[in-house]
Amino acid sequence: MSKFEWMELETLSTEITHTQSRLDAARATNNLGLVQLLQREIAQAVNKRAQVLADITKGLGRFAGLKPKLVTPAREPEPAPVEQQQPAEEMQPPSVNATAEPALSVNTKKGIANMWDKLTAADLERVKRGLATRRSEILARHAEELKALEADQSEIDVIDKAITAFTQKFKLSSTAEVIPLDGERVPA
After folding, report:
1. CA dihedral of 6, 12, 14, 18, whole degrees rounded to 10
2. Contact 16, 46 (CB under 8 A)
3. pTM score, whole prediction
C-alpha cells in the first residue's frame, strides 16, 4: 500500500466524474457513437478503480491482525523523604508494555524502484487502449465541429444568395457611392 495507489484511486474517481458529465452532454446532443464510447470509457475506469481499491484493501489486510496498543507510562511514585530513599542500585526502571509483534517499517525506496523496473505487456496494452480511446474521442469531436462549421457555412451561403437576389431585384450596382457619416474623415 503506497500513496501512489491512493493518488491513482483519486485520479480514477475524478476521471469517472468528468467522463460522466461528458456522457450527459453527449446524450443531450443525441450523439450515439460518442455516448457508446464514453460508456465504455466509464466501464473501464470503474473496473480499474475497483482493482486499485482491491489492491489497497489487500494491503490493509496485512495489518488487520495487528491491533494498536496504548502504551501508558508507568506512574512514578512520589519521592520519599530523604532519609528513607533507596540506594540507586536497588531502584528499577519503570516498566513499559512491550509487545511481541514486530515494529512496522515502511521502506518506500524499494517499492518505488521495483515499480519502475517492471513494465508488462498488460501495461502496454492498457496504454494502447487508452490512446485508441482518446483518438476516437478526438475524431468524434472533430467530426462534430466539422458538422457545426458546415452548418454555419450553409447559413452564410443562404445569406449571400439573399443579398445577391436583393441587389438584382432593386438593380443596385456594385459601384455604390460611399457617404461618410458626420464626424468621419474622408480619405484624401
Report:
1. 180
2. yes
3. 0.34
